[in-house]
Specification:
By secondary structure, this protein is mainly β. The chain has one helix and seven strands; from the N terminus they run αβββββββ. The protein has a single domain, classed as Jelly Rolls (Sandwich), CATH 2.60.120.
Length: about 130
């Protein structure tokens, strides 16, 4: 899937979520620094979600970790045609860490859903 197609899919999803009243709290593109590191802190509003996405290459290993001020639902996902594949999925967690062994060239997203009635502070770290 090329970058333009991925961006279009993201725009369509964002518009459909806005129309349904479930707007995203935050959509962030991964911007690796020179050492292959990425960190981001965001506030996820009640009933909303945060998503951090970027293109990865088959065989890469991404070490990831996050902490949040309250439990949220978390997943790492990518799209294969009309299907969504979840290399990782955790429900009601305030922290997590693992490694993602990238199975194929694709855009991957780390996503958190805030099901609480208060904003949740989230800190994410990714390392290539």
């Amino acid at each position: 899937m090329n970058r333009t197609h991925t961006q279009r899919m993201g725009a369509v999803l964002a518009l459909s979520l806005l129309a349904s009243g479930a707007a995203k709290a935050e959509l962030v593109n991964i911007a690796w620094n020179g050492a292959g590191h990425f960190e981001k802190t965001v506030s996820v509003n009640p009933g909303k979600f945060a998503e951090v996405c970027g293109k990865l290459t088959k065989g890469q290993v991404i070490v990831w970790s996050f902490t949040s001020s309250a439990a949220m639902n978390f997943n790492i996902h990518y799209h294969e045609g009309k299907s969504v594949v979840f290399p990782s999925k955790l429900d009601a967690v305030a922290a997590g860490e693992d490694k993602l062994l990238v199975p194929l060239d694709q855009g991957y997203c780390w996503m958190w859903s805030n099901k609480t009635d208060k904003p949740v502070e989230l800190k994410l770290m990714l390392q290539k």
